[in-house]
């Protein structure tokens, strides 16, 4: 019934700061950027390896969403990478703080977490 995930929508508190993070620090490609005047809202479409898409939205005064303690709903967004240590190193060089690298006890794969500018938990996971 479902083919794949089409996109993931993220609402940010500071559009320019989040755009810089997702484009310049994480390296996602801008597909389209529009300002929706009637909503006073930016919408930025980002490509992730040319397959999946992240929609980054800005809205006036969005309420905060708790990340810690963990709340109900979507827990985090994970990206598959070939080399967790290498990608974590690049992120660290770009000013993104990552947690210590861990090993998944069930798969034996390496992974680590970091956060976007609004505290949204993001993960890189060895593919």
Q: Can you give me a brief rundown of this structure?
A:
With 127 residues, the protein is an alpha/beta fold. The chain has 2 helices and 8 strands; from the N terminus they run βαββββαβββ. It is globular and about 50 Å long.
Explain what the structure shows:
Helices cover 17% and strands 38% of the residues. The protein has helices at residues 15-25, 84-93; strands at 7-12, 29-36, 41-48, 52-58, 77-81, 102-103, 110-115, 121-126. It has a four-stranded mixed β-sheet, covered by helices on one side. A four-stranded mixed β-sheet has the order 5-8-7-6. The longest helix has 11 residues, at 15-25. It is globular. The two termini are 25 Å apart.
Task: Tell me the layout of helices and strands.
Layout lengths: L6 E6 L2 H11 L3 E8 L4 E8 L3 E7 L18 E5 L2 H10 L8 E2 L6 E6 L5 E6 L1
Parallel strand pairs: 1-4, 5-8
Antiparallel strand pairs: 2-3, 3-4, 6-7, 7-8
Beta-strand share of residues: 35-45%
- Unreliable stretches, pLDDT < 50, 5 or more residues? none
Q: What is the typical, i.e. mean, pLDDT?
A: 93
β-strand number: 8
Radius of gyration: 15 Å
* Alpha-beta classification: alpha/beta
Q: Give the ordered list of helices and strands.
A: EHEEEEHEEE
Q: How many helices?
A: 2
Instruction: Give the CA-based shape.
Output: globular
Q: What does the main sheet amount to?
A: 4 strands, mixed
